[in-house]
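Field log, afternoon session.

UNIT: design team B
ACTIVITY: writing a sequence onto a fixed backbone
BACKBONE:
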């Protein structure tokens, strides 16, 4: 997707503070953190939102879900963390490339 911010970050066109990457996902620090630790987990495949995901994406989505705890552990979030997935504008999604937030390291910004 040519105009997608996250696709440009994944491709290295826009700099980011990488935390983790593998063949399926790219993880980087959020530029406007809402907690002491706030990273974004973004699949390399462009999927607009969870609403747009299909059965073809089930292995990718499972990989993300199963990798998030490993990333959280790498970030020192042994006491726990919050995982957030906003879907569409009404759900708070601002960048339309599916992505998960991992937040932790202090009080959570909302209940």
């Amino acid at each position: 997707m040519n105009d997608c911010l996250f696709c440009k970050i994944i491709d290295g066109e826009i700099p980011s503070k990488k935390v983790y990457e593998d063949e399926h996902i790219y993880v980087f620090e959020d530029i406007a953190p809402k907690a002491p630790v706030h990273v974004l987990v973004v699949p390399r495949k462009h999927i607009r939102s969870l609403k747009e995901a299909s059965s073809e994406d089930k292995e990718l989505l499972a990989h993300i879900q199963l990798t998030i705890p490993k990333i959280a552990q790498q970030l020192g979030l042994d006491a726990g963390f919050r995982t957030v997935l906003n879907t569409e504008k009404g759900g708070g999604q601002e960048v339309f490339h599916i992505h998960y937030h991992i937040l932790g390291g202090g009080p959570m910004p909302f209940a």
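LOG NOTE: The radius of gyration is 13 Å.
NEXT ACTIVITY: expression trials, pending approval
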